Amino acid sequence: xxxxxxxALATSTVGTACRNGTIExxxxxxxxxxxxxxxLNVRGDFPVVNETVFLNTPYISPxxxxxINATNQFLMAKARDPLLLGDMxxxxxxxxxxxxxxxxxxxxxxxxxxxxxxxxxxxxxSMNLQAGDNVVIDDLHYTTSLVLYSKLAESTGVEIRIVRxxxxxxxxxxxxxxxxxxxxxISVAWVSNRNGYRHDLESLATLAHAHGSYLYVDAIQGxxxxxxxIKKSGVDxxxxxxxxxxxxxxxxxxxxxxxxxxxxxxxxRYGWRMVQDRLSEYQYKIFSDARKFGYATPAFGAVYQLxxxxxxxxxVGVENIENHTVPLANRLQTELAKxxxxxxxxxxxxxxxxxxKHGADYEKISKQIDEAxxxxxxxxxxxxxxVGIALFNxxxxxxxxxxxxxxxxxxxxxxxxxxx
Length: 420
Description:
The protein is of the alpha/beta class. It has 12 helices and 17 strands. It folds into 2 domains: about 85-315, 3-Layer(aba) Sandwich (Aspartate Aminotransferase, domain 2), CATH 3.40.640; about 320-420, Aspartate Aminotransferase, domain 1, CATH 3.90.1150.10. Helices cover about 35% and strands about 15% of the residues. Helix 2 (about 65-80) packs antiparallel against helix 9 (about 300-315).
C-alpha cells in the first residue's frame, strides 16, 4: 500500500463511527445542512450543532467530519491491509509541518509528544534546577504545572514563586515583581483553563530573556483558537495537546522548541524513533532537532485525525477563527456582567473562553441546562460555569445561553425577595 495522507483519507466514506451509542456507517458521517447562521461556513461539518448548543470546547472539542472520516479510514486500513510504518511516519512528519505552518515555526522546531504535560516535564527536567534557583508561575496555570513544580521544589530545593492573579489578571508587571537573575524558568498557560485569561507572550518572553531565563508556554487552550506567530512572540518552549481547539484526538501533542535553545532541552527517554543514523558497533546518532523527542511509536490513529483536523483549520484560517470567536466571547461576558453575574474573565480579554459564578442552585440549573441541550463545564465545586466559543458557534448560541442565564437572575432575585 502506498503512502496515504490524512487529506486523502478524509474524502473517503468507508468505515464505521459511533453516534448516540450506536455504530453507523461513515458514509452517513457527511456534511449536513446546518441550522443557524454560519459565518465561517463550517457548521455542516460538525453534527454536534444539530444536536446540542455546544459551548464546551475548552474541555473536549468535537471533531469535524472530514477528520472523523480520515480516522475511520485509517482504522479500516489497519483491519484490511495495515499501512506500512513508513507511511505512518510520513503522516507524522506532515503533522509537524502543518503545525509549523500554523504557528509560523520551522518544522525542525516541532516534535510530537503524547501530552501537554509531557512537554513541560521535559523542559523543567532540563533546567538543572537546584537550591538557590527559582521558577515563576501564576495561580491561573493548569494543575499539572502546579504539581510538577511543587514536587521539583521538594526534590531539588528550587524555590517556586507563584504570581497571584488580581481580578482574573496575572500581567507581566506582576511577574516582573517575582523574577530576578536567579529565575531559571517562567511558565504560563497562554490561555488559562480557569478563566480564559490570555497572557501577553511577547512581554513575558522579553522579561524572561532580560534575566537570562526562559519562557515555557502551555498552549492547549490557545493553539487553534488564536493566531500565533511564535517567532515574533519570543517563546522558547511550547506544548499543545490536540483534543481541544485543534479539533483532534488523544495521545498526540505538538511540542515546540526554539531552534536557538534546542541544545538546552534534553530527551528524558530514548528509543528507535529518534535515531537519525545507525553507526557501527551498535552506536546511534540521534536527531539534533525536535525529532529527538520522539522516542517510540506514537498514537498513529490520533496522528491521522490531527493531520486532517489541521488541514481543516488551515483551510478555515486560525486568524478568521479568532476574529469570529473572540468578539462573541466578549459580548457574552459583557452581557453576563449586565445581568449581574460575577464574571471571572477580565473585561476585553482576547480569548474565546468565559467563566463566571452563577450564584444559583446547581441542581436546578444543571437540570435546566441538560434539558435545553447545552453543553458546558461546571467548575470549582459546581459554583462556576466555563464556556468556550468555537468556530462552529454563532450569535444564536450565545443568545440561547443568555436567555437561560437571564432567567436565573430573575428567579434568584425572586427567591431573595420572598425570603426577606
